[in-house]
Amino acid sequence: MDKVILMVCCVILHACQHKQERTLPYYNTADFTPHFEKEVATDFHRIRPFKLIAHTNTPFTEKQMDGKICVADFFFTTCPGICPRMTTNMKMLQDTFLNNDNILLLSHSVTPVEDDVNTLRKFAKYKKVNPNKWLLLTGDKEEIYNLGRKFYFVEEDQGIDRDTSAFLHTENFVLIDKNRHIRGIYNGISLASIQHLIEDIRTLEKEE
Q: CATH number of the domain that 147 lies in?
């Protein structure tokens, strides 16, 4: 009996140590092949420089992501399908990390002509978006689509080269670390996936 108790204790201890040592992989391709490394090379894939505008009518660039853990998605305000559930789940992330200055949420409009600053501001007010935690972004359509497809890798169709004439529509949320590296991708309409995302954000916070 004592041996059984000892074995159970060892298993629990090992599980606890494994949990404490858990790290997230890095990703640099659209097929999301994981790279489990403590550090990556300086030229490893990360979100490139860009310039957009937030619903607060202020410029937003990649520099405002530096030093922050970011969650990014791509949506549009008139979407009748997946976007409302994505917005609900982004709101959950906002409320979960509301008082955490390390976390920033970014929603990029894929119909930026229709979703101008005024439209996004009204939408943000209706959805109770807190601008200190969550920003809705608009700007040049080509810029947004290039970021989504070539840098965030949000589209599921691998190996297909598309331009802005092909509509960008995806439920994926992407987790970005403080150095703008991709560390995870999640189904933005799945509550289980969002809970996993919350756990991964907390794991990232423990990194040096």
A: 3.40.30.10
